[in-house]
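note to self — DONT lose this again. spent like an hour looking for the file last time. sequence + predicted structure for the chain T wanted, 253 res
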Amino acid sequence: MGAGHAHKLYRHGHSPVHALPAHCKIAAVFCFVLIVVSTPREAVWAFGLYALLIAAAAVAARVPAGFLLKRLLIEVPFVAFAVLMPFVAEGPRVHALGLSLSESGLWGAWNILAKGTLGVAASVLLAATTELRELLLGLQRLRMPPLLVQIASFMIRYGDVITDEMRRMRIARLSRGFEARGVRHWGVLAKSAGALFIRSYERGERVHLAMVSRGYTGTMPVIDATTATRTQWTRAAALPLAALAVCLLGWTL
């Protein structure tokens, strides 16, 4: 984890949110999502306040609204599932626009959309202000099992390597006049997938042998051991603490 690795969700900047240590932001987002999920679905106004908190964090991070909204498209499959719930759920029915909808299904759809959207928005904001290397180091500082951190690190680092290998194999097929047009060509694609698996496995073995020859004993060295100050923890806690106040009001009002 010594070198950086850029990703499309990250937006380079010098905002106060960017300056916070990764483990502070991870803990803040995790607590925020737990609080949102714990909020009763009937407290509709509370989710509006949560959205305002996310918007305030995005302004502080200098992340444009268009950037955030575009990344929220990842939850489209969940939106499609939520839209179907009022039609397939059982229970008392309500009529709107000539449609017979399940009351429990409507509440369930609202629950999924509201909480899912807020959780995805918080996660996108975290990814937009934190590099992948910092995220991994932050998870390590939060005492996540080292083996899981290493697996995630290798997946991130060698995902691009495998993608490039797939691209080279595709170019090689095209240069030989091959173009998949039907079921008859599935055999060639299956052989290409098998060859890709073997090459990836062999590459992994070579990487492991190279690491062992350099003294790898099962743990990765921590190059950046920066710790968070009390002020940084306080700033990171502002979002979940404000959300907690809203949640408590949602349960009492």
